[in-house]
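From the pipeline queue, job 12 of 40. The input is one protein chain; the requested action is below.

Action: predict structure.
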Amino acid sequence: MTLHALEPDERTLHDHFSRELEPVLEIEAGDSVRFRTLDAGWHREPMRAVPKTPRTGQRGHALVGPVLVRGAEPGSVLEVGIGSLQPGDWGWTRSGGAPIELYKRFAVDEGDPEWLLWSIDAGAGTATTQHGRTVAIRPFLGVMGVAPAERGFHATGPPRAVGGNLDCAELVAGTTLYLPVEVEGALFSCGDGHARQGDGEVSGTAIECPMDRADLTFAVRRDLAIKTPWARLADGWLTMGVGPTLDESADSALEAMLDLMQDRLDLSRKEALGLASVVVDLRVTQIVNGTVGVHAILRDGAIR
């Protein structure tokens, strides 16, 4: 097992997923990578004042990678063990100022965004706005994904079955993410650090921040057959669904959870569905990325 390190620089930074991107690092299964990432807006310096003009352009999230994992091949599963996550000491949240329909529904002037500028104290586990409002932090990476099989440029905004901009706040340190692999080597990239986010990410942004350290350990699994991302939490299992509507995303997340329940609890499909109605929680992951997300959670010990 080897620990590698990747910095956000001209060699590693990119703004899309593609099987045609050259890997910047090749590792063996079992190796770890210590990533340092920029915030989603490609800022290299802290935002200490409210921007006078909104950021323009269509550039995607600032991703670091891709990492080629030897032995990962189409049909296998990339296991990503999430270790230490250390956010930077600043972040920001924007309400309005982006083409998201929900702003209109909640009577927010999309042409005059509100900016919350955060000071993050990782040691204390808190973040505080310029107005003196303080919240507890729960850091995670908003984007973790591998390259899709289809050739060409794939924007970072919408999540996919192979991961990407999942924005799942459950993927904190100590959890494990499982991603279906569609290309040789998987070609994993990550970025979009969040110090804290609520389910839904309802303003379109979380506490967007750089990650000073994100330690990820990679393995290749051939004993799993998954169609959408799964995750192992500290106290349960999580399955994700993404799609154009919440209904379709919920169906995808539930289908994956029923597969998991059948496999791990030796249940029939009908029995799994009945039990899921009693003990599985469906949650809205995010509603702001065009392709929306739902995740299903089954807690350990819920079925004895």
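Job complete. The helical segments are 101-105, 246-265, 269-279.
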